Amino acid sequence: LHRLFEGIDIGDISVSMTINPSAWILLSMILVVAEERGISWERLSGTTQADIVKEFIAQKEWIYPVEPSLRIVRDMIVFGTEHLPRWNPVNISGYHIREAGSTAAQEVAFTLAAAIAYAERVTAAGLSFDAFAPRFSFYFIAHNDFLEEVAKFRVARRLWARTAGDRFGARKPESMRLRFHCQTAGSSLTAPQPLNNVVRGSIQALAAICGGAQSLHVSGMDEALAIPSETAMKVALRTQQIILEESGIASTIDPLGGSYALEALTEGIERDAQTYLDEVDARGGTVACIESGYFQSEIANAAYEFQLAKERGDRLVVGVNAYRDDKPDELPFEIHRVDAEMESRKVTALRAFRRAREGRLVEERLAELARVAASDENVMPATIDAVRARATGGEIVEAVRDIYGSYVELAVF
Q1: Disulfide engineering: 88 pairs with which of 57, 77, 137, 381, CB 3.0-4.6 Å?
Q2: DSSP letter assigned to residue 41
Q3: CA atoms of 352 and 342, how far apart (whole Å)
Q4: 276, exposed or middle or buried, with CB in 10 Å at 0-12, 13-18, 19+?
């Protein structure tokens, strides 16, 4: 990470890390970089996504079983509360749930179910809800149905405020607020007629802003084809800037509030989302619903119905099942190409990194981390010590895997 942040004062920027099962290791690396540069941890600002619940139910990138994985997130939140006043230790993500095929109501409900699971474990560790909840951040998608998406964001804020107050006894207003980042829907983008994706991203971005997003990312027009190119990312950036500087929509809070259509949609999504949350409680909570496959089954059924609607023509996608061109598209831009030599360069650099460190110290620190993982001590200090000795992310993962084992998803739905 020293090389990554070369020439950058990490005390003056906000760092967002979209990583989950190994997020605590990346956070430890950031802290060690700051420490070795003489930068106080209290100056650091940023976000680790770290939302392992949505991995189990949607994105499917995990390492350890469910409860140990939640324990690591708990430790990150506790450590962050005590040492990192400007850091968001967890970013609770509905985006991936929706990308997996959920409905808007499921996206809200299952995201809040994850937040509840984290909050329950942190309060059980002895912290008050008001001590850590203000640093919770959320991450939602902006999909194609403009009014439904605006309504969904309003519902998420209502339900989180109610959950924070009624379930966890929040007293601080900032504990009941729902701060969220939003990204436009990558799964809505199409390889046919890719320039159409500029329009899709613009409509979705407008929904996010009308819904009250605090930060926004517009997906690149070429994301159905490759990693976004520089041209696509510049168009995405300009889309946001035009909405901000030219449309006037960002200068009004809840600009569509009072619309009959919007209020009716909001009430309907709220009812549906609350029904899901009640069902999660009735089934024994978030972990029980992961292990039984309830979340996964509900999302899979919704995704199947969505696909059937497209195949029947009930849901039209311009350029795919409607308004198609007979001739193949000629791409009006260059797509990103991955450097084929990148892998070998990284392997060579990693081997040199390992040769330059003190191997025995690394082994001692990894052994101590394994001991801590087997106890109920917070894993963050021992992980930071391992990073100080220059243990790699992979070595830290394996040291803890020896204690926790690996998660294997059962075909239960």
Answers
A1: 137
A2: G
A3: 16
A4: buried
